Amino acid sequence: MAVFDAPNRSRPISQNLLLYLVRIVRSQRLGGVLLFMKTCVPPKNSSFKMKKGTGRLALLLAILAVPLLSAQGQNPAASPSEPEAMPILKKMSEYLAQAARFSVVSREGYDVVQESGQKIEFGEVRKLTVSRPDHLRIEFERSNGEKGLVLFDGKEITVYRTNENIYASTSKPGTLDEAIKYTVGDLKVRFPLAMMLLSTLPSELDSRVVSADYVETTTISDVPCDHLAARTAQGVDFQVWVAQGDQPVPRRIVITYMGETGQPQFWANLSDWNFAPDVSDALFAFTPPNGAERIQFLAEVHNVATKAASKKKGGQK
Question: What pTM value is reported for the model?
Fold first, then answer.
């Protein structure tokens, strides 16, 4: 499975949506979310057109990967008295990977580079609740007022958009790791910081990070943190602020797409970490609200169309 993948630019996609969905009767595209795995590259040539009091953006959401500190005149290399970065990253990743369950609030922003070169920032707030080995709930609200849910109950993956009262659901029995990889790799749904939810996070970072530096000791929301800067082999840099003490969780992440025009960034401030959330099976179950319309994931529709076309072509031989 590729580490990074570029978004589909064949058709315009509505502003920063949670996933590609398609209406069964008339194809309607909804968009995508991404997170900390299988990185998505920010869309190129996305246009931003303003009308009175409203904005429209033809773009594909893209955010994820891992970043580094690269400022001319500053050398982030640690002095002999400073701690090393890699052991701190390893401690953080192992702590998250071994957690049986947790919840966290992520306040995020991401750049979309316009054809003019101007960067426009959009944002969202998400609450993520993980209960291993096979449960996930993500509640989100975007800067344009769009709200929704992403759910996995060990059997099905469901994405629901509250404002439009539509949802897509597909069967995928298995672990949370398997569901995340299937969602990103097969359904082509992208959501920020997905890698952070994997139980294999330590090995994922080991295989991607080629260098890491200790920058400084600082505070994020009054929490003492180690500020680290890292670089991946895929041309994506990231900085992470890891809380000191017995809960080495990321408090802030900044990702920079070095190889993309304008070097757009994604950032996330992570707060309200809870490693003993009150969870039940009902929290991860989805019951369609009254009048909700079920639609299909775009990738599923595409696969059906491709198979039908191949079958028709084979019959004409």
Answer: 0.73
